[in-house]
Amino acid sequence: MLLPSILLILLSACIQAPNSPKKNIEKTEVHATDEKHWGYSGETSPRHWAEIEKNSDCDGELQSPINIIHRSADSIKISNKFEMFYTPNTFLSEVQNDGHSIKFAFKSIDSIRYKKDIYYLKQIHFHEPAEHKINGLIYPIEMHLVHQSASGKYTVLGILGEEGAESDLFEFFQSFLPLENGETKTINEQIDLSYLQLDKKSYYTYKGSLTTPPCTESVNWVVFKEPFILSVEEVLTLKSNMPINNYRIEQPLNGRIVKYNF
């Protein structure tokens, strides 16, 4: 009776043995599909973007935003490096809450010229608080006007927001809010951005990156010294429609030169 019992135990072990490795493989496969998406808090915060976005530039040497120190900037006289071709009839197509910011999209009509290249206005979005600092000062909000050339290069205009009087522009923007996360509204209305006359204001320029993944480098940054004035209520309305603290932390200069154009 002993020999048949031993054979039965061995046969049972042979049948059950393949099941153990199979369970381990299933656990590994489930874990591999549990991918993270970048955000602004916890394990998806800007400190982890380079780990999450493997094929991005988020760990590059020319990243944005930065702290602009005015006395360290290379001051130069403006010489037609930056021109605006905005019309009173800029066509605003839609607004979207993409879970990271509120984004207003435009038809590719209005444009700017920067260093002899033409860049078309693609979108306006917001960060709260501001991403760029001037002399260490953090403003309550920053507006980014994203422009792209026909060849795919970027020039981004950064306008810092300061709390004060009501802004007609921001009243117009917030008339399309609130927006739920993932919601898009069609607008198809005209807006006058030409009155901003940004090409007549003093500004800082430097080579940087997009401030959200994939953190694409070789972006021309134009950050205006004079802040835009909007009301506390307008700041709070934008804030309530975006993730808390949807800003990227300050990035090292790594030897880059910031120029002050006046």
TrEMBL record:
Molecular function, one GO term: carbonate dehydratase activity
Sorted UniProt keywords: Lyase, Metal-binding, Signal, Zinc
Gene3D superfamilies the record matches: Alpha carbonic anhydrase
Catalytic reactions of this protein: hydrogencarbonate + H(+) = CO2 + H2O
Domain Alpha-carbonic anhydrase: 36-262
Signal peptide: 1-17
UniProt-listed InterPro entries: Alpha_CA_prokaryot-like (IPR041891), CA_dom (IPR001148), CA_dom_sf (IPR036398), Carbonic_anhydrase_a-class (IPR023561)
Enzyme Commission number(s) of this protein: 4.2.1.1
Pfam annotation, one family: Carb_anhydrase
Family of the protein in this entry: Belongs to the alpha-carbonic anhydrase family.
Protein name: carbonic anhydrase
Primary gene name: cah
